[in-house]
Amino acid sequence: MTFKRSLLIPLVVFLMMALFLGFGFRLDNAKILPSALLDKPVPEFRLHDLMLKEVVRSPKDLLGEVALINVWGTWCPNCIVEHPELLRISKEEDIKVYGINYRDNNAKAIEWLERFEDPYIFSVVDSEGKLAIDLGVYGAPETFVIDKKGIIRKRHVGPLNFEIWTNEIEPIVDYLKSF
Amino acid sequence: MKIYTLLILLLGFQPYLIASIDVYPFPNQKLSERYERLISELRCPQCLNTNLAGSDAMIAQDLRREVHRLLIEGKTDEQILDFMQYRYGDFILYKPRFELRTSFLWLSPIFLIFIAALIWFQIVRNRKVPMPLNDNEEAQLNRILEGRDR
Question: What one-character-per-residue DSSP string does A160-174 give?
């Protein structure tokens, strides 16, 4: 039997597909979007403080230290799930936690914080979700790590827990603090 | 029977239900058409395979509102797509832009056509075309045919 070169075509096509799909699967979870805002500064905002209602906050209030920014809402079940870990971080870890109260009702949000305890230095009221959109948020909870200059260095989608803190967030925080 | 009546009635209500999902006022028809096109070209970040037009997710509502706002502010389609891509990455664009990373995606059809042409060319070249006989061969063939008759 003579060797036909055309027999190689399916093999070549298969290898190409394998390469292409292999590249596609590099995103380990298709549900978690690659963050478009990494290494970009926290977007501009002027929003009211949830607790100190007349105070208007801006990105300047976040500068100076490595910090966590947590997007939360009382309507979000996973925010309750991650809440104990956020509380623990705010008490035991040497890092400031700021909140973005995302598309929520102020009275409900304040009541929620009084009931479960408030882990945030302050929360800003993002009732229309505009800051959330500027951050590329598509659900809650989401947590961002920012460096001392207010540059976003890490984004975590979904509830935090101790494992995620120790494996994914703490190393970055420690590294950023060394600057 | 009652349930059918109810279902038929509900069918009649459907357009109203759809129409009630955020209606944004536009000063002219052109802007409104651009809005419709943009929200059908942008993917809802939360729902993997639905566009902004077809999604009820909170984030889709917010993004539709942003598209409306940007259109009213006089932004071009390109600026609006930039706005979305800056925040949500390539994922949000149903029509990915031509970049190094997406070049394979865009060029693969051309590549496939090229391969198809190559295969076609091979097949055509290998096809055995009967050669016309030359005079000598013609005479030889005739002799053989005549010899057969006797």
Answer: --HHHIIIIIHHHHH
